[in-house]
Amino acid sequence: MSFYTSLTGLNAATKELSVTSNNIANTATTGFKRSQAEFSDIFATTPSSKASNTSGSGVALKSVQQQFTQGNIESSGNVLDLAISGDGFFALQTADGSNIYTRNGGFMLDTNNNVVNGLGQQLLGKAVDATSVSYTHLTLPTNREV
């Protein structure tokens, strides 16, 4: 039993190192949100045993939680780079028409003046008219009249 308990501890430490190394590897990634490994105790119990008489049998990875705390906002010099202060996500539409969400605010214009991210996914905004609210692609006009 003690060998199994030690082995669960080694496995948990390996998984925590994996999560930590992923956090370190992505520190310079725009919009990256760190993860945190959460663990739980393993108890070998039977329905007739008392909780006060049981001893631990190891540790297990409970979950890897994404941390959505506010990061630092830095100026990039690109007028289309955006940041979200507080909660929220940018809505993007992929090439296959599905919607995804991100906090990475690095945007540019494509050849059709659509606001897109580095993968060509189009930024969506809310279009509001008298009867409804819907998502629409954000496109900048090619010429502006004064």
Describe the structure.
The chain has 146 residues and is an alpha+beta fold. 16% of the residues lie in helices and 30% in strands. It is built from one helix and eight strands, in the order H-E-E-E-E-E-E-E-E. It has a four-stranded antiparallel sheet with strand order 4-3-7-8, with no helix packed on it. Strands 1-2 form a two-stranded antiparallel ribbon. Strand 5 (108-109) and strand 6 form a beta hairpin. The longest helix has 24 residues, at 2-25. It is elongated, with a radius of gyration of 24 Å. 5% of the residues are buried.
Distance between the termini: 79 Å
SS field, number of helical segments: 1
Task: Work out the radius of gyration.
Answer: 24 Å
Sequence of secondary-structure elements? HEEEEEEEE
Strand content: 25-35%
The secondary structure category is alpha+beta
Strand order of the largest sheet: 4-3-7-8
**Helix content percent band:** 10-25%
Spans of at least 5 consecutive residues whose pLDDT stays below 50 are: none
> Would you count the extended β strands for me?
8
Overall pLDDT, averaged? Answer: 84
- The dominant shape is elongated
Task: Describe the main β-sheet briefly.
Answer: 4 strands, antiparallel
